[in-house]
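Re: [ENG-882] Designed sequences occasionally contain unexpected residues at chain ends

Forwarding the minimal case from QA. Structure tokens:
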């Protein structure tokens, strides 16, 4: 089967991993054959292939990009399949325009060994086709006491290590983890949280928490650990990636580290550049997360960090929970929101507001995650046809009840958004399609 996508604005910022040449931005025709990109030419140059095995998409007014990559998701399988399975998570990813995701290790049992990594990959192989890259645990059972066998995890298919959901409080253990991972070429992803400062907190520390009578979590609970891990990164010389940055002071610390040549990268999530702690005023547990939503000053700092390249990646931290965990008192509710099916549209708001160019957004949602994790990305003849087609003008209303995800815990339910993935392809196979002209 051959596929011709005609007339889309093709945007590829260029992948530093050497999988393609320079950046692309312009109206193009893209031919896909045998799961790979067979040709890319300026619009109108490619001849329509003959034969009955050709599917033609008219993508005028649409944007075609390398497949989006979400390097931070929680799919809950094994152990909590009532919240999300690998299959439903992959369908949610495809609907959001993602061709690949990286699953965090806080499953039950924890992904701290090759057996669980292989189980995740076997389930992924049975799903819709979205690529799943497991991330292994830094410490056994996420307890922060003893390192997992990184070599075994890598051999089984893990692309990085993290104790996401828990910080590694022991600085010596974190140092050893970085040294061990560095020797194997694994990326270390850090959940930065100082547990004593954060203990008992339910939301951001500030005036909103005081009015609501809820215990707060100060920015310093994140930033102290960001600074520690930057120091360990400088000490070891091993690459470090900081997850879900939310605080102004953390952005400043990462910016300074980069200026000093320290090999640190960082991500934030759409909720941290879209919402403030005002979102929890009505004790809405769908807006409860860790790190918590913070102030407008923090949101502004996150946006500036994205704009100037301090923050390399936009990831969702997709964290499904059922009503059992969310429909309870605010301080007892589980942290986290789902995000795969709203991330792209929320990111496009940054383009509309002038924070990012469209190319920069795609870079942070596709080629930068690939660079950090050493994955293939980009549009080049002969490479796998992992492609996302976006309708930038599609107006739609978020309806959580229609999500592909099992869970419904989103603070964006009912929002009207602009821009949506309408075609997602992995290895040239359509894994999601919505009203694209054929």
């Amino acid at each position: 089967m051959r596929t011709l996508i005609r007339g889309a604005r093709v945007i590829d910022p260029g992948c530093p991993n050497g999988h393609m040449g320079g950046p692309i931005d312009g109206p193009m025709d893209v031919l896909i054959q045998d799961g790979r990109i067979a040709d890319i030419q300026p619009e109108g140059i490619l001849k329509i292939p003959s034969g009955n095995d050709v599917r033609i998409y008219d993508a005028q007014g649409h944007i075609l990009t390398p497949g989006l990559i979400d390097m931070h998701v929680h799919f809950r399988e094994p152990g909590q399949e009532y919240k999300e399975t690998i299959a439903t998570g992959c369908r949610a990813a495809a609907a959001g325009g993602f061709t690949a995701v990286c699953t965090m290790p806080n499953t039950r049992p924890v992904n701290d060994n090759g057996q669980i990594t292989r189980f995740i990959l076997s389930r992924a192989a049975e799903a819709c086709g979205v690529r799943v890259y497991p991330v292994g645990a830094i410490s056994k059972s996420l307890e922060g006491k003893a390192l997992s066998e990184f070599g075994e995890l890598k051999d089984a298919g893990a692309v990085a290590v993290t104790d996401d959901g828990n910080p590694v409080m022991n600085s010596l253990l974190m140092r050893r983890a970085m040294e061990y991972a560095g020797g194997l070429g694994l990326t270390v992803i850090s959940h930065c949280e100082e547990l004593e400062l954060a203990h008992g907190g339910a939301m951001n520390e500030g005036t909103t928490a005081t009015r609501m009578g809820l215990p707060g979590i100060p920015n310093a609970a994140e930033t102290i650990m960001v600074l520690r891990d930057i120091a360990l990164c400088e000490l070891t010389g091993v690459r470090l990636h900081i997850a879900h940055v939310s605080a102004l002071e953390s952005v400043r610390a990462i910016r300074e580290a980069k200026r000093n040549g320290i090999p640190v990268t960082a991500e934030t999530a759409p909720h941290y550049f879209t919402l403030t702690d005002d979102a929890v005023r009505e004790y809405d547990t769908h807006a409860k997360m860790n790190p918590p939503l913070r102030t407008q000053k923090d949101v502004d700092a996150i946006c500036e960090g994205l704009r100037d390249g301090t923050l390399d990646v936009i990831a969702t931290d997709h964290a499904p929970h059922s009503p059992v965990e969310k429909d309870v008192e605010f301080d007892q509710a589980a942290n986290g929101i789902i995000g795969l099916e709203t991330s792209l549209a929320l990111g496009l708001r940054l383009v509309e507001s002038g924070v990012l160019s469209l190319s920069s957004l795609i870079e942070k949602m596709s080629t930068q995650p690939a660079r950090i994790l050493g994955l293939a990305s980009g549009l080049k003849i002969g490479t796998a046809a992992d492609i996302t087609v976006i309708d930038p003008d599609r107006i739609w209303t978020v309806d959580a009840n229609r999500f592909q995800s099992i869970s419904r815990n989103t603070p964006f339910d009912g929002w009207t958004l602009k821009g949506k993935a309408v075609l997602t392809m992995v290895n040239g196979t359509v894994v999601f399609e919505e009203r694209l002209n054929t």
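QA comment: On inspection the terminal residues look reasonable. Residues 220-236 form the longest helix (17 residues). Proposing we downgrade this to a documentation issue.
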